[in-house]
Design goal:
Strand order of the largest sheet: 3-4-5-6-7
Distance between the termini: 97 Å
Order of helices and strands: HHEEEEEEEEEE
Number of helices: 2
Helix content: 25-40%
Number of strands: 10
Largest sheet: 5 strands, antiparallel
Shape: elongated
Oligomer: single chain
Length: 237
Amino acid sequence: MSGARRHRVRAASGGFSLLELLAALAIGSVVLAAIAGLIRNVGLSFEAGTRGVGHAERLLLALERIATDLASTRYVHISGEQGAKAIFNGGAKKLAFISGAGVASGTPGEEIVVLEVEEGSDATRLVRRRAPWLGRASAAEAKPRDAVVLLEGNLQISFLYSDRSLVWIQSWADNADLPHYVRLVLRDRATGAAVLEPPVFEIRSDARPSCSKLGATPYCLGQQPVSPASQPRSNPR
């Protein structure tokens, strides 16, 4: 066997050359980078999906909490210079009323519920606070506490109010009657687009206290309630 042939045989039996090793390492690095990118994308997609489900569940829980509170609103009135008025103070960003749907530990009882919109630089929050209802004399001194964030995000949050006519207004205060419906408006803070069809909550306690007196007529109740679904809805401003 010639010397050149013996050299080629020894080189072939000695393993990879340096050039081949570098090429293999380069290919392996590309494959590993591709796998890492794929895993990262899958992880981000899973996290986004989980976060979306979490937001949807939180929204449903918040709407259920608000619906329960408003459905249990009590028709309590106080006397003033212009006659009796219901204890219900509703504005575009804050809503206070008396509810019988207590959620605190212990014996359930009536409580003052305050739903307030708090706007921050990073997010807007809808916060629920409560205080025990101890009677008309304590209404002005009540200090709601136990803050719970019902909604949070890059949102515009506001309330609208209506009687049976479904003409929506931004304030309901110092009235003899309670509103029949409350609408929660959720919009994207950046674009102003509606996040979802504004939910409408019904207040079921719509009879004045005088309706319980002897000799009261059905006219004290006014007209029969109208379902929100059967009437055209105005666009909230």
